[in-house]
Write a structure and sequence with these properties.
The protein has 8 helices and 2 strands. The protein is mostly helical. Strands 1-2 form a two-stranded antiparallel ribbon. The chain is flat, with a radius of gyration of 20 Å.
């Protein structure tokens, strides 16, 4: 997770900076990308060789159809991002990082489903009562527009690139 978030941060810096800092962010992004791919391989190998039942979700009939193209997609994302980090693109490395995260989460979710606490509690056992869920839905309907509008305002306020001048 730390490697992934470092990659997200460094690709965000590519978008928001220019000149020397952007060159540095591209170099750090290349290191973090390599480290993230190694970490994804290690986690996949751990899940494959461990005693857990994760492989039933991966190699069972419906899951296999959905997950078979994922290694190819991850390799494609890796090579596209490697190419973009050496080029002039600014937004696509960040979007490719988000896509890599999504691929990792999909693989882990397929491996763990339907458990929310690994092999102890399913999502159905962890779900709250219907009245509690209804109350939370009302709260989400009220708060979600507030959160989204605040986020939009923050992005609008901090749009554009950061200059290289010192702030006093």
């Amino acid at each position: 997770m730390i490697i992934g978030y470092a990659l997200l941060g460094s690709t965000w810096l590519i978008i928001k900076t220019e000149h020397t800092l952007q060159v540095w962010a591209r170099k750090v992004s290349g290191w973090m990308l390599s480290a993230l791919v190694v970490a994804m391989i290690v986690v996949t190998a751990f899940m494959y060789f461990s005693d857990i039942n994760a492989l039933e979700g991966w190699f069972g009939f419906p899951g296999l159809l959905y997950l078979a193209p994922m290694p190819i997609i991850v390799l494609l994302l890796f090579f596209l991002m490697r190419k973009d980090l050496g080029g002039e693109r600014e937004y696509r490395p960040f979007l490719l990082t988000v896509a890599l995260f999504l691929m990792g989460y999909i693989g882990v979710c397929f491996a763990m489903f339907p458990y929310i606490v690994p092999y102890q509690m399913t999502i159905y056992e962890a779900a709250a009562a219907d009245t509690s869920l209804s109350f939370m839905l009302v709260g989400a309907v009220i708060m979600l527009p507030i959160i989204l509008s605040y986020t939009a305002f923050a992005y609008y306020t901090f749009k554009g690139k950061t200059g290289h001048e010192h702030m006093y």
